[in-house]
Amino acid sequence: MSLYGVDVERTGRHWTVWRWFLLHQAADYLWAVLLVLAWLGIPLLAGWPLLLEDVDAGARRALFQTLATLAGATAGLTLTSVSMLINVLGKKSAPGQRELPLEKLTATHRRQIGEVFLFAIPGLGLLVVAALVTVVLEGDGPGGLWIPEAVVFVLAFACVLALLRVAWALRRVLAIATA
Of 42, 63, 64, 89, which is the most exposed, with the fewest CB atoms less than 10 Å away? Predict the structure, then answer.
């Protein structure tokens, strides 16, 4: 059996890890925290400045403003995708015509696809707010503040993972719709 181009019966370590990634969205924040902790731990042990503390104020401000802009634009795009997805997944074939490929999806699979999109939006919104708050808190000071920076980077890394999942879902929906 195959659902949106992915064999359901397929087994193996690679499939199990990928399926786990697709179904456990909240783990994005765990992976992001682990990555930022490693990024904090190495400089801490080596005696270097943490995160972006030693970077020029203008470069830090530009980075966080860019992150806020990208997150806001991506959140809007994802929200628009949800609207289109509702229309596409809810579309039924006319009476007497052959069933549309998307109609073959079960309610569970439709819910899982929707959750992928809806999970990404709050994280992107939080990233916008955290990045802008970091710009304000750091101001034109000579050094960065590692705590708000760490929060921004955790959110940014988690959002990247969520957006990878969104891209996967869009690809699968497109594959089904054109089948």
Answer: 42
Are the beta carbons of 93 and 100 closer than 8 angstroms? yes
**Percent of the chain whose predicted confidence (pLDDT) is above 90:** 49
Phi, psi of 90 (to 5 degrees): -90, -5
Largest distance between two CA atoms of the chain: 72
User: Is a pLDDT exceeding 70 seen at residue 34?
Assistant: yes
Helix (H, G, I), strand (E, B) or coil at 82: helix
* Residues 123-160 pLDDT 10s: 999 999 999 999 999 988 888 899 999 999 999 999 99
Give the span between the Cα atoms of 5 and 106, in whole angstroms: 15
Mean pLDDT value across residues 7-25: 68
> Residue 39 has which token pair?
């990024």
What residue type is 77 in one-letter code? L
Count of all residues that appear for the chain in the document: 179
**pLDDT in the model for residue 113:** 84
Q: Please name the residues in contact with 95: beta carbons below 8 A apart, sequence gap of 6 or more.
A: none
**Do 30 and 159 touch, CB atoms closer than 8 A?**
no
Both structure tokens of 172: 């699968």
Q: Of 154, 74, 155, 70, which is closest to residue 117 (Cα–Cα)?
A: 74
Task: Tell me the backbone φ, ψ of residue 37, rounded to 5 degrees.
Answer: -60, -40
